[in-house]
Structures are given as C-alpha cells and as structure tokens.
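Morning - alpha-L-arabinofuranose inputs below, output right after.
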Amino acid sequence: MKRTLLILGFLTIAMSAFSQDIYTVSTKTVKAKVPATLWGLFFEDINRAADGGVYAEMVENRSFDFPKPMTAWQTWPRPQLRDGILMVINQSAVNAADPKYMQVSLNAKDTVGLMNSGFDEGMSFKKGLAYNLTLRYRQVAPGIHVRIFLFSAKNQVIGRTSLVLKDSKEWVNQEVSVTPTDSARTGKLLVIFEGAGKLDMDRISLFPSDTWKNRKGGLRADLVQKLADLKPGFLRFPGGCIVEGNQIVHRYQWKHTIGNLEDREPVQSIWADDVPERQTPDYMESFGLGFYEYFQACEDIKAEPLPIINVGMSCQFDAAEVVPTNELEPYITDALDLVEFANGDINTYWGKKRAELGHPAPFNMKLLGVGNENWGPQYAEHLKLFTDRLKAKYPEVKLINATGYSRNIPVFTYMDSVLRARKADIIDEHFYDTPKWFMDNSNRYDTYDRNGPKIFVGEYAAQSDRIGSMKNKNNLLTALSEACFMTGIERNADVVSMASYAPLFAHVTGWQWTPNLIWFDNTTSYNTPNYYVQQLFSVNKGTDVVPLLKDGKAICGQDSCWASAVIDRNANALIIKLVNMSGSVRSESIRLDAGVTGEAQWTSLANPNAGVVNTIARPDAIQPETKIFTVKGKEFKFSAPPFSLNILVLKLNGVAPEGPAGSKP
Ligand code: AHR
C-alpha cells in the first residue's frame, strides 16, 4: 500500500455550506456494534491453495500415494521401474492410510535416481536459502548411499549434498539440508541411489527453511503474511466443497489430518476433475496442512477458528450421496470429538491428543459450521440430529447452518424458513453474482429480522463475466461492487455478524476456479483489487456503526455512490467508507454532528479504468494510496475520484460513544 504525506488543498475544511450533495453523519447515534468477527477469511484447498500452495512442501506426490504412483516423478537416467530396480509397493490392504512406498534394489555398483519436478511450473529455489530434505525409509538390506541434487531449469546443478543412512529395519525419518548456489524458478530435485542393497522409501520431502514462523514442514510465509495483513476476524476451513467431497468416501475427515504425516490418508481432491475446462488429475489432498495446523494458523493470525464439518452428505452438485440417518453416528461423533479436540482439557481423550501434538491449551473454538453448501429436506433432517447432540453437549458453541448455493431461489427460501423456525444461531448465505447484483443488493439486510438468527455471508465474489466462467477477472469493477455490498453489510452489522470473500487463493497455472482473492506461483504472489477492498474494510472496521445519510436515507447508489460510517472508539475516530462507481468525480459535502480536528487520513483504491487488474508481472498495477490532510470543524468537501473506494479516517474532537468493544456473534 502506497503512503503519501500530503496536505491537500482541495480537501481542507470549509465551515460554510456547499452546493454539492450533503451527507450527514451522526456520530452520537450508535446503530450497531461492529462484531469483532465481521470481516474474515474462507480457506479451501481449491486452485492448489494448500498442496502446491500455502503448504510449503515442494515435492509433489512425496509419498508415492497418488493413484498413479509415479505422478511428478521420473526415474533417472532411464525408465527403471520395470527392471525391478525401482518398484512401487502397494500395502493398502494392510495400511490404507499409507498405501504405497518405493523400493530401490541395487545388486551391483549401479546408480539410479528419482527426479521430482514439483508442483505446476516446478520448484522455486532461492540462492543461499537452506532447504530441508526429509527421507522416510527403512533398510531391507543396507548398502545403498543417497546423494541429493537441486537442478535449475536448464538442468544445471545448483545444490548438492548426501545422506549417510542409518542401519534401521524400522521406518525412520532422516533430514539433511541443502543450500543452492543460485536461484531458480522452475527447478527440480534429483535423489540418486548408489551401492548394493535394498531400501524402502515412504516419503521424500523438501521444504524451504524460511517457512511461516520458521516451523519445519510448515507454511509459505509470504502467503500466510498476506492473510495476517488482512487482520481477519475468523478463518473458515477447510472449505468449501472439499468438506463434502464428490463422494462420501472422499469427504474431509479431520481425524485423518492430524498427527504423523504417514497416518494422514491422502484423498483425490474434488477439484481434480470437477471443472471440465480445467482438469487437474494430479490434484490430491495430502493433509500436510491438517486440522492442527489450521487451528495453529488461526491462533497465529488472531482469527477465530471456524471449522466446517461434513453432515453425512457428499457434494450436492456431484453424486449427492446421502448417509442414512440411522448410520450417521460416526459423523456426529466426529463433530463432537472435534469440539473436544479444540476445547477439551488435557484429561479428555481428544484434548490429550491436542496436547501431544504440542498445544496443551485449548484453541477456544466458538464457531462450528455443520455442513458446507448443503440444502434440502435431507440436509434439514441431518442438521437436526447434529444440532441436538452438539447443543446438548456444547451449548456455548455457535453453529453455522447452510442455505445452499444462491439467494432467493426455492433452495434458499426453504432452508432459510426451516432455520428461522428452528432459531438457528447463524445462517450461511453464498453469493456469486454480477457486479450489478452486488451494487443493487447493498440494502439486502436492511429488512432482515433484527431478532432472528445472525447472518454469515460465508462466500461471495462478483463475477466479471458470468458465474462459473473461466474468463472471470479480479478487476477493479468487481472489487468496487463488492465494496458497495460491504457498506450494506457494515450498516447492518447488528444482523450480519461475519462475511468472507471466496475463494481465497489460486495458483496462476494450477487453478480451477476464478475469481480469487490472492494469486500466486511457486515463487511469488500478488493481491487483487478485491483483496485491497477486503483489507480496507477489515483494518478500518471500527467499533460502532453510525448513520451516514443523504436526504435521510442510506447511501445505496444515489449518484452512483455507496457509503457507510463507523466510529472507532479505541482511536476516537470516525471512519467513512465511500464508493464511487461512476467514471467521473463525485463531490459531496460531509456534515457531522461533532467536530473533527487535526490530521486526517484518506486512503483510496482508484483507477479511471475499472477493468484494471494486477498480475504476477505487474503486481502493483492497482493498489491503495494513503494521503494525509488537515481538517477542522463540522463540515468538509470531499471529491471521490472515478471508480474508487475511499476510506476517510477523521479524529473526533470529543469522546466517542461509550460501549463494549466489537461484540462477538
Ligand atoms: O468457493 C468455491 C466453491 O463455491 C466452494 O467450494 C463451494 O462451497 C461453492 O460452491
């Protein structure tokens, strides 16, 4: 974000009335408390968000467990598999969680190798940075030596080391570090075996040492930092459709994602073949980023954890398999056990497991999603069974219930009426729609029942082309239309307690869905205009919603402008958010019921070309700019540039209203 310190002539205060439209702000009339959770994140392993993305593992198919076990691997120097020198052993009948491993048999002074090309474009190496290679192996007949090479795109060796193996008949993990002498964006790893003997290998793994918080086998620091920079109120995980899976057998099972990596049974992602135009047959979920790591990440970035659990139904856009109600017990048990894992003390079975993984203190989970994007009578029936059991044991945990995939269609209205009749805690609504829809619906929540369930806008994103189109772009127009809608969410923060853009991450070549908030390749990443809109709302969320009106009405499109206002009681500031969706300057007089004084801050995300996008090559084609100006008194003129979101932070000349800090849902 660019920052400029400027004293702006045209923004200085004038005490007289202006001919422009007059916006009035009542800083002393608190309409709602801003929930601490209002602006949060939706994380799903779609578009290589986890494996090949934020999970920093560089070796694709590190455990040879993919359906095609040589995916991403090549034997070296020539195909060796059929010679019995390199053999994939399938042990799935006795170990379903860890079905395959690789066996190397050398009976002469021979040299063979395995080369891995990494995810998508290849491995990205930074000159001088240490990379940690882990080999999980057991010796069947000792005598094999291992050498490790890092290659550049041009097949030049840029790093090398060797590993003296332990004489262990049991599976062991052994680590060695290798530091490249040059950088490479599309590199490879080669592991060479020499000598005579027989070696079983269950995993060959390579991580950079500069992971988030320097955790071994952890997450990509640059991508987690982008999440932290959004100051999210919550993190919803692990999805999305992957919660449901395209078949029940592929559903997300959190118990399969904790503990030793070899106990985390890999599953083919629903996104491997769900989008015909962008098939990704090698998309597997390794669960290296599992539920413990998700909870830990939430703690790191100070976001409330919001896990979503499967409700005994697979994705309703796919096979739509439904588990009979009399067979739901294991699913309900998984949900109950998850609360114990997150919150139970260390004397409980699952609380003890959490402690053994390194976190004796509870994660203090307060929110749980029961079902992802489910709908219909079967969902209503399953939900009742889950809710009764969860509420009986954990009444303090707020449950989030789904209403399907869209707004105001029978699928939605049926679930909405069921959930309102049941007095659900929080109802999840999803909107993928045109920019116009987002602009036209900024008043959606004005008429919602103030005493009914809270609303979680759990997935939303404006589509520049059409819903599901591969041509959708994260351009400024879509971002600003979301900002219009978000002013409506903010104005209705007494009803809407949470909102998250979706999806969050996408690999620039490995994606299946567009648009997305953050795009990356294996080396770098960039923020979309939509990211900046989320960030500007989140870091300026304030504590109390106050009215900002024109002619006594909320500003929802008059003269192509949308606006809302909050007080930040902690900073004693008034924050105005104003979107100009037109291609020309919009000038307003802003009249307050309290004086403002001193330096004020104006941050704008603006460009006369509403089609502007950021890219890997031009990551800063559009970014917010901040200027400082001086204000005094109770009225000032503001000119909003064409196609802009503007955040004005004004120091109040007096005490902001009393009240508790941002409330929880
Ligand atoms: O965000 C992408 C997908 O959209 C999610 O997985 C699903 O919940 C919705 O249909």
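Note: The radius of gyration is 27 Å.

O.
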